[in-house]
Write a sequence for this structure.
């Protein structure tokens, strides 16, 4: 699995640049303000040390499921993201389900997949992207059938943690399925 760490600060994910390995001792200088001169909030806090965006690419094969899960777990711990054990287990189950779906259903048209982890001050978002154009609608499923429960499980884990999940089309015609969870556990009854 290729690890394309994007450093210790938040970065745009579709810049087309080759990502760099994270260097915890190096901070990027501020770039041009995308909103124009004078729009930066001088009172805004600096990013926390664990904030950033990292992207892993892997072939759409069964072996990538545990590799993605381990890569995400190791990244969260390496960056010092303040996550509870329950949240880590939920995130890892979400990653496993989403990568499994990409391997089972998209590999023919998308031999590679990407796993992205974005961490903000109060949230963490995991997503899996592939180049298959089919956008699954299986956030509801027939409970009597075999399989097909992966996205339902993702939705339920996300809901219980107080987060949100969705499926979106990509500019290249594929899809990205993501789940964003708050770092502070929020239990929904």
């Amino acid at each position: 699995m290729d690890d394309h760490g994007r450093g210790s600060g938040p970065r745009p994910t579709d810049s087309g640049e080759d990502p760099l390995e994270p260097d915890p001792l190096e901070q990027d200088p501020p770039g041009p303000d995308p909103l124009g001169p004078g729009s930066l909030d001088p009172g805004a806090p600096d990013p926390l040390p664990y904030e950033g965006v990292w992207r892993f690419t892997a072939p759409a094969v069964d072996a990538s499921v545990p590799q993605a899960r381990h890569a995400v777990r190791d990244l969260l711990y390496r960056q010092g993201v303040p996550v509870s054990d329950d949240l880590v287990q939920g995130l890892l189950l979400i990653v496993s389900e989403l990568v499994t779906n990409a391997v089972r259903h998209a590999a023919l048209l998308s031999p590679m997949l990407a796993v992205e982890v974005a961490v903000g001050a109060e949230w963490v978002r995991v997503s899996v992207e592939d180049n298959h154009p089919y956008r699954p609608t299986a956030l509801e499923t027939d409970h009597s059938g075999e399989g097909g429960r992966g996205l339902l499980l993702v939705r339920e884990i996300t809901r219980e943690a107080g987060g949100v999940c969705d499926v979106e089309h990509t500019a290249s015609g594929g899809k990205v399925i993501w789940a964003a969870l708050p770092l502070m556990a929020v239990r929904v009854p």
